[in-house]
Write a structure and sequence with these properties.
- The protein is α/β, with parallel strands linked by helices.
- The protein has three domains: 3-71 and 101-175 and 275-345, 3-Layer(bba) Sandwich (FAD/NAD(P)-binding domain); 76-100 and 177-271, 2-Layer Sandwich (D-Amino Acid Oxidase, Chain A, domain 2); 349-409, no CATH class.
- It has helices spanning 19-30, 57-62, 103-117, 165-169, 239-249, 251-256, 302-322, 327-358, 361-370, 373-380, 390-396, 399-409, and strands at 12-15, 35-38, 53-55, 72-76, 78-82, 88-92, 98-101, 120-122, 125-133, 137-144, 147-153, 155-158, 181-190, 199-203, 213-218, 223-231, 261-271, 280-281, 284-286.
- Strands 6-5-14-15-16-13-17 form a seven-stranded mixed beta sheet, covered by helices on one side. A six-stranded mixed beta sheet has the order 8-2-1-12-19-18. The protein has a three-stranded antiparallel beta sheet with strand order 3-7-4.
- The longest helix is centred in the C-terminal third of the chain and has 32 residues, at 327-358.
- The N and C termini lie far apart (47 Å).
- The mean pLDDT is 93.
- It binds flavin-adenine dinucleotide.
- Flavin-adenine dinucleotide binds at residues 15-21, 38-41, 44, 49-54, 126-127, 159-161, 165, 184, 186, 227, 266, 268, 270, 288-290, 294, 299-303, 305.
């Protein structure tokens, strides 16, 4: 252990105990750091603001954590994408697609994982301000049960979500352009009918979910997480009206949700403009929604934040060894890990999102009619050069060529 590691009470304070913060703390504690999580909530994971879907790769193969057993609701084999006129791409991935979890349990189990590795947690602690002293460390002001408290540490990790105070106080945050924000409403529903109870169902269309999609994710027997995320500024009515109109007024909704009941509601905002330009500065690193590590096309953020927690741990092992907590060291090392893993695919996903910004319903129908699941997966992952039915699509709908050229030329 380096000398820098053992001087104070804590080596690293992680602000926010969501999936990104807990996973960061877990890997840091495993490396032998004295880590403390501060979270404003009294119960991690509540309220839920999520579709609760997570892919398999990060959690199983990269982090080797696996989905906490008690949090798993459905193991998903693939996806079905419905076009505006309900044409469908139905695709089962060879190794399966992912999981639907119960985030109340998922988040708490991840926190438990961090604590079992040796991290400390203090609930009911809302951080209000940080002061960065490049030489000495970070001073944190927080409210604990209405009283102001002070904490200090050499390093602070901001895992405090989309409205991150750490991102703002450290100067890393930039204002979110409304075009880069999706607004979202979701329900947990019981009594939902499933033709395919192991598939993610996504509905597209400018009348259904402008610049976004509506999801039906099976969550255990006859339950579902049903929600919608749409682009701010693209909507002609409220986001809730879009969701309710689909569930209660459309033929498809009436068929699927005939006797279903809403047992829980969620609302939230999703940053879809790509990650912040810089993820770290002197003595401060950001992770998860605080760093806007959310896929610009799908709006998924759980896995990216968790994986970045491991990247932060790897970066800080080196930083403590070298006793180098400078902006240059932290932002270069952590930034490289992030960019090598996701820089390119996030760039392409942003371009794909811009395509979605302008697609007409007819064009969406044409895509769904022409592509198969493999091509759609490649399109979502930004592997546009590998799409095998691209030429067929361009022949069917030449207007798409102009849109693609504009998006790729940006
Ligand atoms: C409606 C909706 C649906 C979504 N669906 C999906 C999905 O299906 N799959 C997916 O991968 N992603 C989804 N996302 C995105 C996903 O929820 C986020 O990317 C993910 O929760 C980010 O994790 P995080 O740990 O960075 O932040 P959060 O989960 O937001 O956790 C932040 C933590 O910081 C704490 N905190 C905040 N401020 C302070 C403070 N000042 N002091 C102390 N603590 C503080 C909070 O209490 C909280 O515990 C969805 C988002 C929304 C809104």
């Amino acid at each position: 252990m380096s000398s820098a590691k053992s001087k104070g009470k804590h080596d690293i304070i992680v602000v926010g105990g969501g999936p990104a913060g807990s996973t960061t703390a877990r890997f840091l504690a495993r490396e032998g750091f004295k880590v403390k999580i501060l979270d404003a909530r009294s119960h991690i994971g509540i309220p839920v603001r999520c579709g609760e879907a997570i892919g398999k790769e990060t959690i199983n193969d990269i982090l080797k954590i696996g989905v906490p057993k008690d949090a798993l609701r459905t193991e998903i084999d693939g996806f079905r994408v419905f076009s505006p006129s309900l044409k469908v791409i139905d695709y089962r991935l060879p190794k399966g697609e992912g999981y639907v979890v119960d985030r109340r349990i998922f988040d708490k189990e991840l926190l438990k994982g961090a604590v079992l590795e040796g991290a400390d947690i203090q609930l009911n602690t809302r951080v209000t301000k940080i002061k960065i002293d490049k030489e000495k460390g970070i001073t944190i002001k927080a409210e604990l049960n209405g009283k102001e408290i002070t904490e200090s540490a050499p390093i602070v990790v901001g895992a405090d979500g989309i409205y991150s105070i750490i991102a703002r106080n450290s100067g890393l945050a930039k204002p979110i352009d409304p075009i880069d924000l999706n607004t979202s409403v979701g329900y947990e529903m019981v009594g939902v009918k499933f033709e395919e109870p192991t598939m993610f169902d996504l509905y597209m269309g400018n009348e259904i979910a402008p610049r976004g999609y509506l999801w039906v994710f099976p969550k255990g027997e006859s339950s579902a997480n049903v929600g919608i995320g749409i682009g701010v500024g693209f909507a002609k009515k409220s986001v809730r009206e879009y969701l309710d109109d689909f569930i209660f007024k459309s033929d498809e909704g009436k068929k699927r949700f005939k006797n279903a009941k809403i047992i829980e509601e969620r609302i939230g905002a999703i940053p879809v403009g790509g990650t912040l330009d810089k993820l770290a500065t002197d003595r401060v690193l950001l992770v998860g929604d605080a760093a806007r590590q959310v896929n610009p096309l799908t709006g998924g953020g759980i896995a990216y934040g968790m994986e970045s927690g491991k990247m932060i741990s790897d970066t800080l092992v080196k930083a403590f060894e070298k006793e180098d907590f400078t902006d240059k060291f932290l932002s270069t090392n952590y930034g490289k890990l992030w960019n090598d893993a996701y820089g390119k695919s996030f760039g392409l996903a942003t371009k794909a999102r811009k395509v979605l910004d302008v697609l007409t319903d007819q064009q969406m129908d044409n895509i769904v009619e022409t592509f198969d699941g493999e091509d759609l997966t490649k399109a979502v992952r930004g592997k546009w050069g590998q799409i095998k039915l691209g030429a067929k699509l361009m022949k069917k709908d030449p207007s798409l060529l102009k849109i693609l050229r504009r998006a790729l030329g940006d």
